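Handout, section B. The chain below has 168 residues.
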Amino acid sequence: MEPLHMLIVTGICCFLAGAIIGVFFNSRYSANEKKNRDLEKHLHESQTELKQYRQEVTEHFMTTSNLLNNLTETYRDIHNHLADSANKLTTTGGATNPLIQSIPEPVSKLSAPNEDMDATPPLDYAPKSSPYDKGSLSDDPHLEKVELGEKPIDDLAQAIADNAKPSA
């Protein structure tokens, strides 16, 4: 019985080894796994393309900004040159007012803060005209209370029944 016993054990071991190898290859090469890998690859490529596109857009706007700044400076230089030339070459009968005013050089907002600006922070409350006012952020709707000449109805059903009775 030894050979039969060895044959059964060998068969079971081969079956288990084949099943394990089959499961491994099935999971490795199945359609779902391949689809997942393709989707992950596509996602990674899309993220890379989006990052590259954002970088190109940023570079485009930076270049456009620099070109517009150069254009503005060139326009200012041309205008000032024309103003200086017009003032030097023309006379307006002894008038001291120039024909064309020069455009002043821009002051950098970061380098020279405006001294006219008020540096107080905004209020975190609504100002009141007197300490006894409720203020504009109060929960009260600011409606005046009006006194009515009628008394409130205590029993609504009775009032409806009284009004429904025909007048004699």
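Note. The mean pLDDT is 80. Compare this with the example in section A.
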